[in-house]
Write a structure and sequence with these properties.
single chain, 180 residues, alpha+beta, Rossmann fold, four-stranded mixed sheet, 4 strands, 27% strand
């Protein structure tokens, strides 16, 4: 079996119709600003009978709550739908309703496990994770302190570890669709 990876804009993939047996996006395409175009592109590039697979953070899960906190502190551009709507089963059914013959939606958990306390996890993300860096950079020092405190509180709330580590189970929606 030959596997080919190709990078592209989720709203305008640089490939022809029906090129792929499998179209896969893990926590990526959900962040494109026009979900209806993303859905159309995923369907367009998948061969009939092929699989479209997505992993999308749910609004109710830990990452969904983190995104809500950051959006409250640094609002996204007006008019953009929340990326976590891709983690809502009814929304996914609507977005993929035309073009797929079978749709399976299952809530799953991804585990984040860090060898340090929640405060240090927030500092780690602030230093090494691009979206978190960008959010902090848009705030003044008071806003940065508030965001750090709110994120730390969320990490503490969801932390299941009791030994100085941080362990979070983050819910996502496993989407598997068969292209009609």
């Amino acid at each position: 079996m030959e596997i080919r990876f190709q990078e592209g804009d989720a709203e305008e993939l640089p490939v022809g119709d029906h090129e792929f047996d499998v179209v896969l996006t893990m926590f990526g395409a959900m962040f494109a600003p026009r979900p209806e175009r993303v859905a159309a592109e995923l369907i367009r590039v998948c061969k009939p009978g092929g699989i479209i697979a997505m992993a999308n953070w749910t609004p109710e899960g830990f990452v969904g709550k983190s995104l809500q906190v950051t959006a409250q502190m640094v609002p996204p551009p007006a008019g953009l739908p929340a990326p976590t709507l891709w983690g809502d089963q009814l929304v996914v059914q609507q977005r993929l309703s035309s073009g797929v013959s079978k749709l399976s939606l299952t809530r799953q958990k991804a585990v984040f496990d860090y060898p340090f306390i929640p405060k240090e996890v927030v500092a780690f993300f602030r230093q090494y994770f691009g979206p978190t860096q960008a959010t902090f950079s848009r705030l003044d020092s008071q806003g940065q302190s508030e965001l750090a405190a709110r994120l730390e509180s969320l990490w503490v709330e969801y932390n299941t570890a009791t030994d100085g580590r941080t362990r979070i189970e983050a819910e996502y929606l496993d989407v598997r669709a068969i292209r009609a």
